[in-house]
Amino acid sequence: MTGGEPARFQVCPTSDRDFQQEYITQLTEADFSEQFPETDEGEFLLIRSTRHPSLEIHARVFVNDDLYEMAVDDRSVSEGDKLIGLDFTVRTALGVPSPRDIEYSKAESAGEVEVESVSNPEGRWERRQLNDLLGVRPQVCRVRMGVFPDLEDKVCRLPSNTLEMIGVDEGDDITIESSRGERIVRGIKAFEIDRERRETKKAQIERDEDRYPQCADLLDLDRIRRTEVDLPELWIDEETRSRLGLDDTGTDGVCHPVRVYRDSWYLFQQQLHEFSIPLVIVLFATGFEVQGRVATLLLWSAGVLLWFGVLFVESRSRL
């Protein structure tokens, strides 16, 4: 990025995104190379709303040279505007409409965002490699306050279909990623938002509306859709919100978008424990029956390769 200041872009929808497994942003090759010469395609950018400056999120960037061609007939796009394509989920997360959204919302013009280059939030190389190998499907969620008895227990609550999209079962560890604070918080066990807790939350809202703001109203989500459609909720306690750096934003850390995905290392360990004991028993039992050191080593090597293949296929099959 040139000049040390965030680059400003007018928002438009993404196109030809090839069914990426996570939400993305798109720039033309010219804008990308000019503004972010040290960032490679597929790496992360930090996207921030200009209307709600506390709302920001990481998104992978890809090149799409058709952005301007698709927007040329749109009356809300002026000559000289720099365009950035944002997926609908990212636009909703930040509360910024595109020209296409104006027809279905109360917005009168497309939104703007500030964009900065940023290092990969997953700072550990081995975890990045494991995420690529086993696969992750991040979901963008809206932070809400947790309720009793979940507080101080390192747990979170998500809708059941979001758990399925991430590829985890209830009680599995997940990773929560923010653009602030520690950026990544691990070891949070994920559970479904059940009826009992929804009723508890509803009672809290009725008794203290100021403490539990409605994100759709706070973020003017009717500028995206008149139906005020929003992201899946993520219920977390105050300590977790503080670790994510969300407690200094004026809303007790709620209504902010975060990326949520499965903990690949935790999943790998699960599969390791599940398949290792049967493998060891079979290999040792068979090894005693096979004559010759070379034959035994070949058998064990084949068994280990088969075991690793099963781990790989089983882990990826949950996405």
What would your notes on this structure say?
Keywords: Membrane, Transmembrane, Transmembrane helix. The chain crosses the membrane at residues 294-313. The protein is of the alpha/beta class and 319 residues long. It has three domains: 7-117, Barwin-like endoglucanases (Beta Barrel), CATH 2.40.40; 125-262, Barwin-like endoglucanases; 265-316, no CATH class. The protein contains eleven helices and twelve strands. It has helices at 29-35, 67-71, 88-94, 99-102, 125-134, 160-166, 195-207, 215-218, 238-243, 264-289, 293-316; strands at residues 7-13, 24-27, 44-49, 56-63, 83-86, 112-117, 139-145, 155-158, 173-177, 184-192, 233-236, 257-262. The strands form two sheets. It has a six-stranded mixed β-barrel. A six-stranded mixed sheet has the order 8-10-9-12-7-11. Strand 9 (173-177) and strand 10 form a beta hairpin. Helix 10 (264-289) packs antiparallel against helix 11 (293-316). The longest helix has 26 residues, at 264-289. The radius of gyration is 23 Å and the shape is globular. It starts with 6 loop residues before the first strand and ends with a helix. The mean pLDDT is 81.
How do the helices and strands line up, and which of them pair or pack?
Blueprint lengths: L6 E7 L10 E4 L1 H7 L8 E6 L6 E8 L3 H5 L11 E4 L1 H7 L4 H4 L9 E6 L7 H10 L4 E7 L9 E4 L1 H7 L6 E5 L6 E9 L2 H13 L7 H4 L14 E4 L1 H6 L13 E6 L1 H26 L3 H24 L3
Parallel strand pairs: 1-5, 2-4, 7-11, 8-10
Antiparallel strand pairs: 1-6, 2-5, 3-4, 3-6, 7-12, 9-10, 9-12
